[in-house]
Amino acid sequence: MRRTRERRRGETRRQLRTAANDLNPIDLFTRWKAILPRREPRDLIAPSEPAGDLVREDLGSAGTPTADVAPVEDEYSHGLEVSLVLPVRDGEAFIAASLAEVGRTLDALARPYELIVVSDGSRDRTVEAAEKLAHPAVRVFHYPQHQGKGFAISLGLAQARGRLVGWLDSDLDIRPEFVTRAVAEFDRGGADAVIGSKRHPDSEVAYPRIRRVYSWGFQMLVRALFRLDVRDTQVGAKLFRREMVDTVLPLLLIKRYAFDVEVLAVGATFGFDRVRELPVRLDYRFTGSGINTPEVRHMLVDTLAIAYRIHLRRWYARRFAAAQRERAERSAHESAQERVRAARR
Hints:
By secondary structure, the protein is an alpha/beta fold. It has a single domain, classed as Alpha-Beta Complex (Spore Coat Polysaccharide Biosynthesis Protein SpsA, Chain A), CATH 3.90.550. Helix content is 46%, strand content 14%. The chain contains twelve helices and nine strands. The chain has helices spanning 2-22, 25-30, 32-35, 95-107, 126-132, 149-159, 177-188, 209-225, 242-248, 259-269, 293-312, 315-344, and strands at residues 82-88, 113-120, 138-143, 164-168, 193-197, 204-206, 237-241, 275-279, 281-283. The protein has a seven-stranded mixed sheet with strand order 3-2-1-4-7-5-8, sandwiched between helices. Strand 2 (113-120), helix 5 (126-132) and strand 3 form a beta-alpha-beta unit. The termini are far apart. Residues 15-20 and 31-77 have low confidence and may be disordered.
């Protein structure tokens, strides 16, 4: 009997790990009850803005949240030019100042924009600090358990409504002027993505030597594995054409450090390979976003897994094709139902 119970527990753990690995961050969020342990959550979305059709909050009797999180259907109806996601965890000390500085910088664009703050399981008063700013362009989301930076960015991207969509590290290691220069690059035309690069000749980088070594070695691996003509994939400052994000986002699996690589590599697989690099001014502040040896190991494993799914299994292409088939079948079914209702009338 004891062996049977232990075997069942082991099987359950394996199923949870498999589910977490096979779901992309948005799917994982919508299937929260199946993946995360039961505990009392905080708000899924900050009360400063009604959830509307973006997130449906449903705590249920067990106190376990479920939510429908999907890209906004009419992404251009709001007339927004730029949507910028700022992922944050335990950022009470700096998030308000960061939002104010980013807001002042984007105001200079004289174009409509939105700032999407996603609290990745923050245990302090990060959400309250972001809301207290009361900036009209700021939207704040929160979920109760730490899932990783990639997960937070994915959730924010799914809610973005702008023509250009991207993210910026909320501690502002990278100065927000990057965004205005990136928008100027898109205005020149011919770019699918504009990313910051520490290895750009004009970059001003105050960076620990050990991280320089890690960065150089990792980028050599990325160039060997993927069709990416870039010198640096890991800077937390990126802006993309809306079409690229809409294509890539439903396919993503990585939830932590190799998320940036997956976005760029999968985008290149589908033809979004016109990537421009901009110099950055990097003031590394050690606010908890550092990389230790186990995390480096996990990032390498995730990167190799991305290469395996792209080159050997063709997993992303098959998943994209399956999604298109499902969409076509759903559309055909809805059309058939509409014809039946019309005939009855």
